[in-house]
Amino acid sequence: MERKTTNLMSIGSLSKAASVKIPTIRYYEQQELIIATCRSEGNQRLYSEKELQRLRFIKHARDLGFSLNDVRELILLEQQPSGSCESAHLIAARHLQSVCVRLAQLERLKHELERMVSLTESAENKRCSVIKALADHSQCEGEHCA
Amino acid sequence: MERKTTNLMSIGSLSKAASVKIPTIRYYEQQELIIATCRSEGNQRLYSEKELQRLRFIKHARDLGFSLNDVRELILLEQQPSGSCESAHLIAARHLQSVCVRLAQLERLKHELERMVSLTESAENKRCSVIKALADHSQCEGEHCA
DNA sequence: CTAATACCTCTAGTAACTAGAGGTTCAAGT
DNA sequence: ACTTGAACCTCTAGTTACTAGAGGTATTAG
């Protein structure tokens, strides 16, 4: 009744529509994240609009840096009627947290690298200061140096 | 003459001194980044101060996010007498560049995740907004959405 | 001399794909 | 109906930088 035209598409079309490479789609299938609606007589995968939506969901989550395990969980939550919101929120919040941590780390690394590179640029000494900076970590300002 | 006491250490001591795990050291050996000075009668690895310095160099570079391939190159450069500075500078600058790119990406992701999470917190509707945000990327503000 | 600890090699597993070999199916044109 | 070329199929192995485990040997402290 509310079923649209049963327009099934090949893996190639799906790939283009979701901007996800074909081998990746097959990999996701292996990981049980997405399964083709059915196969053609000749065993080729056929997908409906529903799978396209799911693949876009996965793509978006991956672009946001969620792991495939997170994605797996989110898909399960999506399928449940309700009560799943808190869990989804938790996953997102946890991920946000790790993004923040990573961000702070990268900031620090950026500073040290900048220092290293600028030292090199003004180098008048023979010994390379990039290499010196790496070898002699007493100069290092970063926290990663124990 | 300028040779210090020939105090060789086991892989365990080296590991502690450089804060690098034992299997990782063996892995680096396999990758030809560091080789033990010699072996004991019973075939156990023995290292000198020189290897400790190199391992610290590797560790520091890895902490700064250089790939093992970069490290390999930097080590080669380190061993050459001179003229290697530009190459080392190039490697560092290239890496800094990629750190900056990654940083900008992460900033964007952070914003989108924050938006997602805050939406969820104030949700009064039944359907989870985290999941909705992932499914419906027309709401998405990030550049990663094509 | 013995027991605990540290070491050895080798293989396989992790995440998230990517690449390639070798073969089949589909769609379009003649 | 036939042919050609693109798109598809499965399966295996490679990528990065390690980590974990099995099964066995060396060293060292008491």
UniProtKB/TrEMBL annotation, chains A, B:
Keywords (alphabetical) are:
Coiled coil, DNA-binding
Boundaries of every HTH merR-type domain copy: 8-77
Return one GO MF term: DNA binding
Entry keyword annotation includes Phosphoprotein: no
The coiled-coil regions, if any, are: 96-126
Q: SUPFAM superfamilies recorded for this chain? A: Putative DNA-binding domain
Q: Does the keyword Flavoprotein apply?
A: no
Q: InterPro entries in the record, alphabetically?
A: DNA-bd_dom_put_sf, MerR-type_HTH_dom, MerR_fam
Protein name (record) = MerR family transcriptional regulator
Q: Which organism is it from?
A: Paraferrimonas sedimenticola
